[in-house]
Design brief:
380 residues; alpha/beta; Rossmann fold
């Protein structure tokens, strides 16, 4: 393992620290797409020691795992960098040779496309430079979307493993170090190859395609509803329940920015917001519909009009189980919606269906081929 000379360990004991010792090494925004936009705060550092250990690359984007309270002010901020996080993990010594990078220090609600694209390139370059796997630490609030987005584009056999923490780094029983250790153990293990992007949390290993945040504060916040985890971390090693499954072909990198709106159905909602979507420059719409993908009858004519000008996808609000294709014919049921040119999301949750729609459009997939490209992603 490697730790930075300048890193100060994350204190677990609640002892007050000075702002100086926790001063972030990165500004509070993200990287850009072009060389000119590349972050100046890129802090990659590779240790030359311990050549026999497998090489794992680790980057932080921010989130609770990097957050602490400073100077007795109320509330926590993302202040820790990758080296500080690594230095706080007992047991990493002797496990891997780490390349660390602090790519951003953001709460995960503020992660954005250009930073994700930059992070993807960084991770790919690390694999091409010989890393056995990559670990990304970020806020848990958006892991189900970011991990899925990385998974749509990941084209390596080596794993990209995403994790974070539910408890602040200075909380009693902080879960960040255990999650980081589990993620590194999964990233370096040959059994993790060919499985795409994984989320390791609370010693469970989830496929990026199914994982969802199910609890706002529990350290067991993540699950893959209806599908279950791919495996668990046991005595420091991943144990997968099944051999790797075939994954959809990776999408080309995004070519451009695409705005996709999301609307959730609500009881007795007249759908007037659909008019706002129509007039606001969106290129696609994701509807989180009722049950297996249904909307109120008051929505259908507006939805049909919208579907004439942009792709409209309807997912099921429960977030578990598939949308249907051929059961209900009532106005706003799936047969009716499909006849009006609307794409059903299949097994994808509304959040993941929006990520997929955006990624397909950003990859330049023509509207007429949307259904063809959608279906390999929509089945378990
Ligand atoms: N509660 C969040 C977290 O886990 C905050 C965020 O997503 O950044 O990290």
């Amino acid at each position: 393992m490697t730790t930075g000379q300048s890193a100060s360990p994350v204190r677990q004991d609640g002892v007050k620290r000075s702002r100086r010792s926790l001063e972030p090494k990165a500004p509070l925004n993200g990287g850009g797409d072009t060389p000119a936009e590349r972050p100046e705060f890129f802090t990659e550092r590779v240790d030359a020691g311990l050549p026999k250990l497998p090489h794992v690359a680790l980057a932080t984007l921010g989130g609770t795992v990097t957050m602490a309270r400073i100077d007795q002010a109320p509330g926590a901020l993302p202040v820790l960098d990758a080296d500080q996080l690594v230095a706080a993990v007992p047991g990493l010594d002797g496990l891997a040779k780490l390349t660390t990078a602090t790519l951003a220090s953001l709460p995960s609600a503020s992660l954005h496309r250009s930073l994700l694209a930059h992070t993807l390139r960084w991770a790919q370059e690390r694999i091409e430079a010989g890393a056995r796997g990559v670990v990304l630490l970020q806020g848990t609030d958006t892991i189900e979307e970011t991990a899925y987005w990385f998974g749509l584009h990941w084209r390596h056999a080596e794993p990209l493993v995403v994790t974070g923490a539910m408890r602040l780094s200075d909380a009693a029983g902080a879960d960040g170090p255990a999650n980081l250790l589990g993620a590194v153990a999964v990233a370096l293990d040959p059994a993790s190859r060919q499985r795409g992007v994984l989320v390791v949390f609370n010693d469970e290993i989830h496929a990026c395609r199914w994982v969802q945040k199910m609890d706002s504060i529990s350290t067991a916040a993540f699950a893959s509803p209806g599908i279950g985890p791919l495996g668990r971390v046991v005595e420091g090693r991943p144990r997968f329940h099944h051999p790797p499954a075939e994954l959809p072909r990776p999408l080309p990198p995004p070519q451009r920015e695409v705005r996709v709106a999301r609307l959730d159905v609500g009881l007795d909602d007249d759908g007037a917001l659909l008019d706002v979507v129509a007039q606001s420059g969106f290129e696609g719409l994701l509807v989180a519909g009722y049950g297996a993908g249904h909307v109120p009858q008051t929505w259908v004519s507006r939805l049909e009009r919208l579907a004439g000008s942009m792709p409209v996808v309807v997912a099921g609000r429960p977030g578990c189980g598939p949308t249907l294709a051929a059961t209900y014919r009532f106005a706003g049921g799936e047969i009716d919606l499909r006849e009006r040119g609307i794409q059903m999301a299949g097994w994808l949750s509304p959040a993941k269906a929006r990520v997929l729609l955006r990624a397909l459009l950003a990859a330049g997939i023509a509207r007429g081929r949307l259904a063809e490209f959608w279906s390999p992603h929509a089945e378990p």
